[in-house]
Here is the input.
Amino acid sequence: AGLFSGFYEHCPILSAENEEVRNSRLKLAQLTAKTLKLGLDTLGIETVERM
Here is the structure.
């Protein structure tokens, strides 16, 4: 989560310089969220949909 937070801070997703970069960053964000949720679910930690 910390590594993604650093990425998010330094690499704008929705305001990326072009559509290809934006789409790849969106996909990375989606996969990161899915991976974190799966890991937390495996540990029995409840997650929230949004913060």
